[in-house]
Amino acid sequence: MLAYCNCVPTQVLFAMANRAQIPTSNSALIAMIADEDTVTGFLLAGVGNADLRRKTNYLIVDSKTTVKAIEEAFKEFTTREEIAIVLISQYVANMIRFLVDSYNKPFPAILEIPSKDHPYDPAHDSVLSRVRYLFSAESVSSGRR
């Protein structure tokens, strides 16, 4: 049985829970660009974040979301210093494939993930194609082919 404690007013507890977090130098975020179900699952797992200006680390893509909005979110997430990984649904990545393929920085890492309605296709994954290229080039240069 839970007992009610009069030591801390309820208003103070709610204010503490709703306070925006200030990132420390060693904290890193995961950003999401995906459909509503995928983003909701990751938000329930604790990935979601809103800074002091209420800028979030996710974009929910639906049929009304424009390609320009997806491009802007991708550019924003890849330039924010506190983001370490950008998870993007593969079907969304296909909409901005030119941006995903041209991104060549190691940080933040871009990972394409499947969604509920769109299966994962390894042929379209830019990270996997780069790994295949590196290993094939390495095996050719070392004569192990």
Automatic annotation (TrEMBL):
It holds the Pfam family ATP-synt_F. GO terms for cellular component: proton-transporting V-type ATPase, V1 domain. GO terms for molecular function: proton-transporting ATPase activity, rotational mechanism. Keywords: Hydrogen ion transport, Ion transport, Transport. The keyword Thylakoid does not apply. Belongs to the V-ATPase F subunit family. This is V-type proton ATPase subunit F. It comes from Anthurium amnicola.
